Protein 1
Amino acid sequence: MGNAIGRAVDARDALAEIVRGEHVSDDPATLAGFTRDHSDELPIPPWFVVRPGDESQVRELVGWANATGTPLVPVSSGPPHFRGDTVPGRPGAVVVDLRRMKAIRRIDRRNKLAVIEPGVTYAQLQPALAAEGLRVVTPLRPRAGKSVIAALLEREPTLVPRYHYAFPEPLRNCGVVWGNGEATYTGEAGYGPPSLDAQWAAGMRQVDPKGPAQTDFVRLLSGAQGTLGIVTWASVKCTLLPETRKVVFVPAHRLEHLIGVCGRLQRLRLGEEVLLASGSLLASLMAPMREADRSELPPWTLVVGLAGRAMFPEECLAVQETDVREVVADLGREHGLEVADGLPGIDSDGMLEILTGVSAEPYWRLADKGDCREVFFNATLDKLPDLVAAALWLAEESGYPAADVGVYIQPQQQGVVHHCEFTLPFDPADADEAAAVRAFHTTAVERLAPAGAYFSRPYGPWANPVYARDGGSTAMLRTIKGVFDPNNVLNPGKLCFR
Amino acid sequence: MGFTPEVYKLFEDIVGPENVSDDPAVLDSYAFEVLADLVRPEQSHYMPRPVAVALPGTTEEVQALVRVCNVHRIKVKPLSTGWYHFAAPQSDEHDTLQLDMRRMDRILEIDETNMVAVIEPYVIAAQLQAEVMKLGLNINVTGAGASCSILASACAYAGQGPMAYWMGGNAENLLALEWVTPTGDVVRTGSLGSGAGWFAAEGPGPSVRGVCRGTFGSRGGMGVYTKCAIKLCHRPGTTEWNVHGTTPAYRLPVDDLFRVYTLAVPSWDAWADLYYKIYDNEIGYIFHRQFNLAGANLAPAFWLMYNDHTKTLGDVEWMAQDPAVKELTEEMRISFQFIMAGRSTGDIELQDRVLDALLQQVGGWKVERFCEDDMAEFTNMYLQRLGHKHINYVWAGGYVGTWMQIGTPDWVKNYIPIASAGLERDAADGLLVQCGGDAMMGSGSGFPGGGVTGLEQFVSYDANDLESTRAAVRHMEDAVKDAASHGLPPGKEGLYLELSKTDEQVHAELAAANQPAIFRFQRKIKDAIDPNDIGDRLYATLPPEG
């Protein structure tokens, strides 16, 4: 016991020296904030929570972790957390809370680029960008405390498919402290001196994500759940802030009826935000809604944002709208599809606010019942109707009403990949409902993967069945882990790094 | 250890005797490579000769060959269509088996709905493009041209081209991938490994391709890529190509939904401004500084000659002196080609309005002669297909690209005068083609949506003349020095010159890089993935530790 206390005192002293005293905590309330989240991951309290203030402190922390064999769990976003990736997978871990590192290092209007630290949130970044006539494309209604870098590293789907050339767009270059303590820059920045100021002085920008050399480390870091390296800054590609905006809606009784139109819009790269949503998802997003409106929402809606920017913005938007209406008239005629300017309780302005802002408190996914679980995977557009039907069937089978499942489909990579997500709100005090949701969540991989659902981001209990399907990638990823984090100090227990 | 008759028999057992050879004449045909003369002793046209060449027909055959090479410590060098000396064996000291992938030439699938094609290594861009165009789709044909392997560009080399601005470079367009690793294991990346098809590149979890497909791929130095999926994109307008004209200047009529222009600006500042404004306004489909590869002093005369079937190369000299052509030469001294495509009539008309407004803002103009029907149709054919790679060698039979450091337009515009002055100086003795110092060409953007560009200096020399070849080498060395003296990294010439250096020299340069840790990691990756060192040094690393 005495030894354990001694080790803790030593550790606290060492950590305090690295992060300067007040930024290390083992206060029970602080630890409790990282012990569990809205997932079914086994609650494990961290040993300490530390809040480094800069890259050098992160490097020292990783060096200390390697020297002492202490697991580190990097966390960039504020609560609530949902997927278990920020819950320690081992006892005795130190949470590296990066929220102190929240500087917007540079906004470059000419190159439409922002360079930010991991603690920068969407709520913080968007107003700063707007002042320069820019914006960053966001995930769907991110929570206020969501780190921009964390969202992009985890390949959260973003709302404008035509700007999503490839994953993990719009993330471009990163500064990384790897698990072995080495620090490098990724992409174009990997060719320059290891100092952003020096690169900027030399006229270098951090635009091209590929490289350096034979590597594409930003892709390696994506989806890694903090198991390979800790990102200390990143460049993020922005777009011009639209000068004129509008949202139109294409309601439908069946998802199948919207597939052709959605696919055509992607192919033509038409529209700003483009997504498919079930009525229940729209209701959650727009909450609180009048019950009369909620019950009138169509089962499925294709939401299409339109935007005009740069030269002739009004004309640009008008041409887009004409083209969207033509596509719907052409491909939707068979199913009686029409473009609508609004839905019951939802108009263009209201939807724009949803698509361009951050969530109010409480976070919209929790607002309905206090808790929720998400199941998500990637698929091609043509497979979605069957996969959605299978998932909703599984929900019913698990004891959860299919009608209450929020379904969100986000085209990515200009329509080649589609993120398909099911949100199941539940009352944590209702044991039956909670059990039904958990049953759905834990069996999703085994039931949906054989039908073509690709679980590209295997959190928590999904990791084992997902990696069991892909022995080649699993072996290679373990080899790679051994290169970058040979002592397995970064977030051990996640993905296939058990 | 090494290559023996017994090993040869093993190769025969795997691919059949008709698909393997150690005939010196056959092997020399693989060692003979473009640009070898710039990096090999005594300006030899031959890279190291492989000990054998094998033509596998399946992934399983590739796997078996690689495993034999592991056992016998023979290096493996895959070759699809080849382009440059990178495709040949790199070491005189080691036995190398050349894998010629030409039997794996199938388009396995074209999925129109999801805009995905699945291909084998020897599918060339022209072949895939012809098939997808029937469906109103298109691919990014890289700067290497229509005759080159799409898989190689996507997995193993650079992958940019005139179309990358709208369609994405093939690094971005690479989806799932089948990779025979240097130890002979098969890794199927992204959705493919999970049995979900070819559509997704990443995951599950981290993206495995992150260790081998960077700015450049592994250039044949880290295993063999046997199949991949590539992202397709829309091509508006007719799917029927009514090509006409006289060889070699075939012409493609400009569809109503297309516009084909050569644009010019008064200064390099205006050039950069126009690039940024094009990015901001999201107009354009194919965006390239193409015709200037013939040199700013000669390009207009050359292309007018090329389009006049009554004239030959020998006419260029006097044509360039024609007052009207001289005027045109000045008019288009800083120019580039720009093809716009609209998804609708309203869209293309709006793009036209935007372009006119942008030109007015920067003081630019459309080069009228090159926008007339004949030259517009020729430009359309050239850039939609990129089937004119012979032009690279038209002046004197040899060409080497220098410069082309990638960066923002503001960064690139600063090295153009340095590169131009350097070529003018190095060509002054007449051993390199004197076509004006600025023979710089390249993509409007190497990344989709704009943002990064780079201009390559097209240096023409006589590859069969020793003095001219040596002058080209000196120019490459000078370009490195010119860049360094202005605080710039080496360009393409640095990559080429690397092939002439010893391992020790290469290691010393990598150790002196701004971030040598990158190459320490690449060393560790190589040690872990290629423990028997069957890949070559084009997967760049520091030396083994200890």
Note: Chain A has a mean pLDDT of 96.
Protein 2
Amino acid sequence: MEERTLRWCSPLALSLVMVLAGAPVSIASAEPLEAAVKATFLYKFIAFVAWPPGAFATADSPFRLCVEGPDPFGDLLDRAVAGQSAGGRPIQLMRRPQFEKGSGCHLLYGTLAMDRLRGEPVLTVSDADAPGGSAAGAVITFVLQEDRVRFAIDAAAAQGNRLAISSKLMSLSVRP
Amino acid sequence: MTDLAGFWRHTPRLTLLAMAVLLIAGGLMAVASETAYREEKVGDVEVQTRILAITTTAALSFNDRPTAGEYLTALSASPEFEAAGIYDAGGTLFAAYTAPGMKPVPPMAEPPGHHFDDDTLTVNVPVMQDGHRIGSVSLRTELEPFARRAERYVGMALLLAMTLLIVLVLGAAQAALTRANHDLAERARDLSAANRALNAEIAERERVEAALRQSQKMEAMGQLTGGIAHDFNNLLQALSSCLQLVGRRAKEPSIQPLLETGQQAIDRGAKLVQQLMAFARRQTLRPEPMDVRDRLLGMADLLTRAIRADITLETQVEPGLWPVEVDPTQFELAILNLAVNARDAMPEGGRLRITARNRPVDGAGGDLVQVTVSDTGTGMEAEVKARVFEPFFTTKEVGKGSGLGLAQVYGFTRQSSGRVEIDSAPGQGTAVSLFLPRTVKPVAAPAKERSLDTARGAGRRLLLVEDDPIVGSMVAAALDEMGYAVLRAGNAEEALVLLSDRALLIDILFSDVVMPGAMNGIDLAHTARRLRPGLPVVLTTGYSEDIARTEGVRVLPKPYRVRELAELLEAALGAGVRVR
């Protein structure tokens, strides 16, 4: 099944390249809708990523979704994860100005550079229009394409953080 | 062999059965194959649809239509996929793929499962994410066209066609064979029927020809015999007249015995001639309406004497028997002739049966009365049977029969417009039937005459000398009826032995003139009167009355009636008493 998916990815990637070549990236201002989509995406990423065995203390340890710095989602994120679980684990929202190594985050959204968290089993998500941009070193970077929220996945960063990202998710990745 | 033939006869039926089994098996196999193909196809497509569903989870989750569209477009690599669609959780079409010239998927999601439409198979599979249904995928594939599927059954169809052909050929062959057999059997039947008819015709023709030959032969014999008898009668008449003339003129006493001998020879010749005349149907008949029943019952005593004690006589006469118009004397003679023949055919004894019955005849010819004389004797061979009616044909030893008995029967019945039939086989006895025409004339009652004669000579002892056993029997019976006690002698010598016996009481001698042996009736008369003077003697002869002009000897000319005999005997007895 994985092989099948991968096989389909190559022509997909090629076509994506072609599409991107002729379409310059236009940055639109963040809108409430955009924030809502991103909030949903944050939650949805969980299903396509596998954390290393040591990432959770116990079998029923909660999944920590951390938002660093200014929170662009407000209660949108709370609504998105309300009543949801991550592979059977309850989802715990954490908001701080900054998270360091060992803060126990499994998914971290922030606009700061993410290089400091390299090696930690944390799925770092950033925005392309963040100060660090795509160079911030996040595993996943939100981009806007044709007024739609898409994302780019840095496979190397993911590997560095010992995260296994589903090829299904990989296939949706756009070129940053 | 028979079993094998029986088996082969059932071949068409067996083949039909085998073909039916083959057809059913073929049909079942085709259905099973079709079902298996569809199930396999459903399995295949479902797997592909599931793969697609799993693949599209991310695209659906992240609302990535282009990627979902690209997943679907990848399906175009296989021509069997006609259309595919991805629906979101709300059932709205999210992404679609349609092969060129094909119908697109419906805009709204269908419930999970699969369904066949015409030559397509549609499979709907939900897209699940963490136990949640986030959408569904629909994949429509074309089934292998029926023509290509049917190709798989070509082998079987060929086999079926061959079987059908074989059955048809076999059936046709069997039908042809059956028809041919039937025709053959019919032809054989026709042939055998024709053969039977032919054989029957041949047999009938042979019989008719034989009857014709016999009839012609008898006719020719009759004419010959009649002609000869007539001429002989004339010659004998002339000869007799000559002898009488010679007797009157010759005074030499020694010539008289010679003349008598000559006259005896003429007498014997005349007897034969008379019998020949009877056969040739030239005799003078005196037919009168006659009751066969009365005649036969009246002859009972006569017949009983004519046959031996070891033979039983049965007489059966149908009640209401029709009368016939024949010469009664000749009729009695014919019955007597037959009885004597029957007696001679039964040397070991047996049963003599005389039956008389009516034989109504439809159409021309008129009714007949059948009188049958049958015995349980030796019977006769066909060669003998064919000739028995011929005059002088006899199987009896020389001197025992004249060979004229049946000739008389034949001549009498033919002359009476009747016919004779003889039925006999060796060891089976003989039955001779006289068919006499019925008459409508009333029958005169002759009963009184007979009762008048009866007991006339009561107690008298009469010596009857007669060489012919039939005539002897008849006369003896008549005399017996008159009340005479009759002594019989076959010739003069026998009579002399009886006459010489002094102890034997004899009242009267009645003798024929013409007899075999050294002495004739006249000699016997002389000798008898020497031995017993005064013994009344009555001689009978068909010829010269002059020859017996001896004292005390009376002559009864033949043929005579019983009444005449009775009167003459009475007269002779009366005279004899006076002489004594």
Note: Chain B has four domains: 2-151, 154-279, 288-444, 448-579.
Protein 3
Amino acid sequence: MTTPSLLRTPLHAAHIAAGARMAPFAGWEMPLHYGSQIDEHHATRKACGLFDVSHMGQVRITGCDALKLVQAIVTRDVAHLGDGQSAYCAMCNRAGGLLDDLIVSRLAMGDYLLVVNAGTYEGDLAQMHAVEREFGPFDARIDGCRDDWAMLAVQGPEAPAVLARVLGGGLDPPAMRMISVEWRGQAFWLSTTGYTGERGAELIAPVEMARDLWDALMAAGARPVGLAARDTLRLEQAFNLSGQDFTAQNHPFEVRLGWVVDLDKPDFCGREALRAIRAGVCPRQQCGLLPEGRRIPRHGARVLHQGKQVGVVTSGGFSPTLGRPIALGLLQSQIVKSEEPLEIDLGRGTTVPAVITPLPFLRAQPL
Amino acid sequence: MQPDTLRYRATHEWIEASGAERRVGISSFAQEQLGDIVFVELPTDLPRDVAAGDEVLVIESCKATSSVYAPLAGRVTGVNQRLADHPERINQDPTGEGWLFTLEVAPGADESELLDAESYRRLCEAEG
């Protein structure tokens, strides 16, 4: 199953010790589950899950012109970010195609940390350098530094209590903050972000701290959760998965990311194209789909109206919280408005009726 | 780990080694590969005659959709109705409580393709 060329996180041995089933993901050997992905999903919704997300990519942008460069890279206006504040952002190519979604945090004046997806890390870095050349010159540096950092997500209603047990009390910042925390004499970043819709944080820590932090969080009551449950947790909240729910073939507006496009901020890559797209008609849009029955539509399943294809499922899975299959689809906008009955093609001649449903599938908990 | 009283198909079904009407299920290796099973689409048009290799039912796990095939020619006579509410039994006890259906094996059905426990174990090792 595993290939020697796969990258391993600093927590590889911890996963093996916890009985993980490992699987390749975006070039990394990652824990898929530790026995039951459904149990892990429920543990995160009801208590506290611990995720190794060290495969995520960190990029540091520093210098007098760091803000200007970040502004040229992402579509959202991040000028308002103060020290320790974070924003969910997107980056596009010149055609307005979505290259990735990411979190931008201002660590200090002229010092930004960008956290991007694992599978897009190299491409994102190349894009950032291209933007630097095209929109520059900037007095700023781009440092891809994913090898320096481990990243652990602590998520769930009990996450604040688990974090308090390990790090001491008084650490309960509001959502979308990034603060420096000292633990056993070493500093790391605590970011109140996540991919589950639950309360909690992501810890961005030096590689050598990873195992101790992991063990301490486990001892404090967090339960390890693999990528399989991470996927159903994010799908219930209708969070896009980069490379699956969108690729460079999609623009932000059609995958419900128009809110991170600020056309009136200083120039950024893709602005002209996005302005034209915004002014025109959007032929496709992302929707939630509830298939009838218990068969599960998967990525790539065709969505039909009267036997004709009108869209495609981009993510489909079983929702442990709702006890039923759910799916994200990219559909013709006309069909979405018409509220006509739809079907999903499960392959080999089997179709199931499906209805469009408001998103998210699950209402997010207040962070 | 594979019980000796069972025979296996290379597509990871097991069938009881003897008897006229035999239980069929998926192997422990198969359920492990699939992960959490959340639904079994049990056939309702029974009894149904099948050839070896015909699809009998579909299992949905969180990870994938999988077909289960008839290991031998015969007649599907019944299904494990308890799986309708408890598909997770397949994960918990794949060769026991998690059986899927009963097959009345056709007289003279060719069993030469089936594997014994040891051959099947070697197949899983090669795949695993």
Note: DSSP finds three helices and nine strands in chain B.
